[in-house]
Design a protein that fits this description.
With about 280 residues, the chain is mostly helical. The protein is built from 13 helices and no strands. The chain starts with a helix and ends with a helix.
């Protein structure tokens, strides 16, 4: 994998962990999730004025990805309410690279070298074991919801990656695909959380919370755009595994800013993730 792709995905990993921490620390996750759609939808809508219209064959992928993103957001918000960021995040992200690699081999015909396959396995095991350093047993419900989040992550990664690869030649067509995906996310996810998810009696959301959510949404859009670009340049499974190194940054953010424990066991898991990532990057 080229250094440019590695740098692109690692940047996305840092940004992804950052917006998840913002969501975890927010008082009203429902409204923060809705507000997170404001920034990307507005920016993408403006960009569409200057971009070509997606080809007809792109729309099934776009609509399918939009639906899967709703499932991911619902499960993620629920999971973050059941445990610490450093517990939930490793499980919800750690299981997805193996699922993506298997799914992409069938759906996209991606083939991995044995070093990449071993690196994906090491990264996934390191990510999952990262949660075991928390010092307490995660409730079964939280575990199931976190695994459900991982399944949605794998599904939308494959669907979005396939859609981006078939969006047409040139950067403009890829940018148009990503812009429409952001607009559909704003409609689907924002609409679902606003009209379907019950509102908590926490008072009227503040302007600060709304702006924080919108900023997190822009960060999320940039992060995911970088990942989708990478999936058009490299194998889906390898890109997914590198992206999930975001758990390293989530663990550090949780320890520094959210007061969560960062034990020696978690640090050992981090080293395993780094080792697996190097195996993928150097393959």
């Amino acid at each position: 994998m080229s250094p440019g792709i590695v740098a692109l995905v690692l940047m996305a990993a840092v940004l992804h962990a950052s917006w998840n921490a913002m969501l975890k620390s927010s008082g009203d996750r429902r409204w923060t999730t809705i507000a997170m759609q404001f920034g990307p939808t507005a920016a993408a809508g403006l960009a569409l004025l200057f971009l070509p219209f997606p080809a007809a064959h792109s729309w099934p992928w776009l609509l399918g990805g939009g639906v899967l993103h709703i499932g991911y957001q619902v499960f993620l918000v629920r999971a973050l309410g059941l445990g610490d960021l450093g517990e939930i995040y490793p499980i919800s992200r750690g299981a997805s690279p193996i699922l993506v690699a298997a799914g992409a081999a069938v759906a996209a015909g991606d083939r991995l070298s044995w070093r990449q396959a071993l690196g994906i396995a090491v990264v996934s095991l390191g990510i999952i074991s990262l949660r075991r350093g928390g010092g307490r047993r995660l409730p079964p419900t939280a575990l199931l919801v976190a695994l459900g989040t991982a399944s949605f992550t794998a599904a939308y990664t494959i669907v979005d990656g396939m859609g981006a690869r078939g969006a047409g030649g040139g950067f403009a067509h890829l940018a148009a695909y990503l812009a429409w995906l952001s607009v559909l996310d704003g409609i689907f996810i924002g609409g679902f959380f606003y009209f379907v998810m019950p509102a908590k009696d926490t008072g009227r959301p503040s302007l600060k919370q709304t702006l924080l959510g919108a900023t997190g949404g822009l960060i999320s859009m940039i992060a995911y755009g970088a990942v989708i670009l990478a999936t058009t340049l490299g194998a889906l499974g390898a890109v997914s595994a590198l992206r999930e190194t975001s758990v390293l940054f989530a663990a550090l953010i949780g320890a520094v800013f959210l007061g969560e424990r960062l034990t020696p066991a978690r640090l050992a898991s981090c080293l395993a993730i780094v080792a697996g990532s190097f195996m993928i990057a150097l393959a």
